[in-house]
């Protein structure tokens, strides 16, 4: 749908009155181009204006929407949320879709955040989709404890972070019960699948990408402060190298990052230049603490050639 409005972007010296805007899958299309969702930090409705705050500090102000204001805001939030869900690489079945309160822990790109938004339960994850760039997909397989305290469901991860959702009306209790049930189910299924994967020296650890991707997995080998990860997929084989300071933290983040990206493994090693033309991947990196951590630890890769094992042993023994 097209909307008549006024658009102001002070930093770019853009002031368009009586312009036409449309809300599309990848962003808001204006007469001066598209405002891509990957560049938006948050959306706010203030005094019948819609403020789009950008990650680079700029602001786009959309006003003079008239009676179309409510429709514009609802469509914008919906489309922004759907694009965000795409960036979280959600592939599993949706079980519940509710509106409720949320609280997110502090991350390396955002302070602690609370508000209202869409709260979705999938067979393998809880997704929190606020009107900001701090949406998260919480993998149930890595939860430590899920407890309902009054009207609030607290999802504590094994690494200590706590995500809080709740006050969903009559959906709160069913959401909590199904969430607890799915967490148990996913952990059991994952453990069974992992038991069927064997390791071979120098690889000693193993993991899945997504629980439903039963044919694809990864193995890891550790040195003193380094790790080599072998991906077993349908893609061309390569071994990815990482360096770290804290082995336990690295191991947790490695597992979480691999689970977060699913079948989109290239997101972990693409350099900033290659990411410029991949807005969905930029959104994914911004929304995943584990992926950002793993990318910060990267130390290259070893292509499978005749000298692969020699290079691998040299790296692990450094």
Please characterize this protein's 3D structure.
This protein is α+β, with helices and mostly antiparallel strands and 318 residues long. Helix content is 28%, strand content 38%. The protein has seven helices and 19 strands. The strands form three sheets. It has a seven-stranded antiparallel β-sheet with strand order 4-3-2-1-7-6-5, with helices on one face. The protein has a seven-stranded antiparallel β-sheet with strand order 11-10-9-8-14-13-12, with helices on both faces. The protein has a five-stranded antiparallel β-sheet with strand order 15-16-17-18-19, sandwiched between helices. A hairpin with a 2-residue loop joins strand 3 (27-30) and strand 4 (33-36). The mean pLDDT is 93.
Number of strands: 19
Structural class: alpha+beta
Number of helices: 7
Model regions low in confidence, pLDDT < 50 over at least 5 residues = none
> For the terminal residues, how far apart are their CA atoms?
59 Å
Residue share in β-strands = 35-45%
Reported for the largest beta sheet, the result is:
7 strands, antiparallel
H-E order: EEEEEEEHEEEEEEEHEEEEHHHHEH
Question: What is the alpha-carbon Rg in Å?
Answer: 22 Å
The quaternary state of the protein chains shown equals single chain
Mean pLDDT: 93
Principal-axis shape: globular
The helix fraction, in percent, is 25-40%
Strand order of the largest sheet: 4-3-2-1-7-6-5
